[in-house]
Amino acid sequence: MRHYIAVFALLAAVYCEEVFNGDQVLRIHAESKKHIQILKELERDVDFGLDFWTNVVSTELPVDIRVPHARLYAIKNFLKENNIPFTVMINNVKELLDREREEMVHNAEMERKTKSFNFAAYHDLDTIYNFMDTLVANHSNLISKVNIGSTYENRHMYVLKFSTGGEKKPAIWIDAGVHAREWISHATAVWLADRIATDFKENRTPVPSILSQMDIYLMIVANPDGYVFTHRSLSEFYRFWRKSRSATSNPKCHGVDLNRNWDAEFGGPGASDDPCAEDYRGPSAQSEIEVKNIANFITDHGNFKSFMTLHSYKQLLMYPYGYVGTDAPDRTELHDVATQASKALNSWHGTVYKVGSIFHTIEQASGASVDWAYLRGIKYSFAFELRDTGEYGFLLPADQIVSTARETWFALRYIMQYVCDHPY
Ligand SMILES: *[C@@H]1O[C@H](CO)[C@@H](O)[C@H](O)[C@H]1NC(C)=O
Ligand SMILES: [Zn+2]
């Protein structure tokens, strides 16, 4: 009898491990308006604990959802009952999280030993800030570090300014890390900072000529509080944090979506007024100190000609508008520039990007930064969604950082050159 119980306990343990080893990411292929409606209801039900990695838009676009292990059985049954087809994109999120963490620990050790910086690794905020200091020290004739203010949790917000001198030259803005869990955007921006610096130093075209006409401002971590939060623990709750970390009217839910908080059709459709939602817009336009700091900096400068923001994932290169489906006045030109830039990107590794307005490529979004920039006269405003298309989603392996950054550089370089050649 005792033997039997022991065997049973063992079997139960094995079974539990199988079933409860971690969350999965499901890709859902809605086939009808009814399916879309059902999925939208699921998306709005924030209490259910599903984490939508991509939004419910139409039958054209699959929806990726991270489903907590405790909900897997129920959700799969629910989808089957409603005849909504799905596939498993990531079988075991925990396994990828463990691997990511192991690689980071190992890499940090290597970097300490060799006193070097590895671009093919993910880093925490302190390491990125140290990297910025070393880069500035190494290229003090070109780069300076600008402190544009502090975050909700009182961290500095830094922008790297690449300039060959001159007062308020026309300028290009690039930011990354607005959404904390999109780690490939921070890592890409780190690589870009180094690339711009070395290309200038080694006189490689077109960087010196671009920098003779324009300044480049690069913000590697636009949401430092959120980014620190994603490093705090291995648990999914932390690693997949998207928003800022400010308190809201609901004591149970923190944070505002920093890409729905801008003073650009704030409060319209395409953002939530529920503090627990991932796309919570905040209580008022630019209520978030992080958004306010960036907006003030750009407004005070007054001579930005291009605004670009790096996100992930989906491989998209987008332009305004996000808040409405009608064409922006410069739509034809922006579409051409984005198309050429995506071709330049594609020429490196063959990575395929889709091009279009935010509204028509992902979803309606109000209060987004590129709309804000565009509505304030910064014509060349673009948003990137970097790799991949969902195989790893937000858990893109570190061995793809450098190739992602390099191809993105091809697109950015094209746009920067174009902006220089088309003054307005
Ligand atoms: C700074 O310069 C040192 C010495 O040349 C070099 O070893 C280091 O990799 C550089 N670091 C950065 C971030 O540029
Ligand atoms: Zn994003």
Compressed to H and E, one letter per element, the order equals: HEHEEHEHHEEEHHEHHHEEHEHHEH
DSSP strand count: 12
Q: Helical content, roughly?
A: 40-55%
Oligomer: single chain
Class of the largest domain, according to the CATH hierarchy? Answer: Alpha Beta
Instruction: Kindly identify the CATH topology of the largest domain.
Output: Aminopeptidase
Q: Determine the mean pLDDT.
A: 94
Number of domains: 2
Give the strand line-up of the largest sheet. Answer: 5-6-8-7-9-12-10-11
| Ligand types | 2-acetamido-2-deoxy-beta-D-glucopyranose, zinc ion
Keywords: Carboxypeptidase, Disulfide bond, Hydrolase, Metal-binding, Metalloprotease, Protease, Secreted, Signal, Zinc
Organism: Cirrhinus molitorella (mud carp)
Main location: secreted
Subcellular location: Secreted
Note the topology:
Elements lengths: L1 H19 L3 E5 L4 H12 L6 E2 L10 E5 L1 H13 L4 E5 L2 H22 L10 H14 L4 E8 L5 E7 L8 E6 L6 H19 L5 H7 L1 E5 L4 H7 L5 H4 L49 H13 L2 E9 L3 E4 L11 H19 L4 E4 H4 L7 H7 L4 E7 L14 H21 L3
Parallel strand pairs: 7-8, 7-9, 9-12, 10-11
Antiparallel strand pairs: 1-3, 1-4, 2-3, 5-6, 6-8, 10-12
Bound molecules: 2-acetamido-2-deoxy-beta-D-glucopyranose and zinc ion.
